[in-house]
Amino acid sequence: MAMPNYFEEFEVGMTQKFGKYHVTREEILEFAGKYDRQPFHLSDEAAKATLFGSLCASGWHTCAMSMRMIVENMTGGAKGALGSPGIDELRWTKPVFPGDTLHVESTIIDKQESRSRPNMGTIFMHNKVFNQNDELVMSNKPMVMFRKRDPG
Amino acid sequence: MAMPNYFEEFEVGMTQKFGKYHVTREEILEFAGKYDRQPFHLSDEAAKATLFGSLCASGWHTCAMSMRMIVENMTGGAKGALGSPGIDELRWTKPVFPGDTLHVESTIIDKQESRSRPNMGTIFMHNKVFNQNDELVMSNKPMVMFRKRDPG
Question: Number of folded domains in chain A?
Answer without folding.
Answer: 1
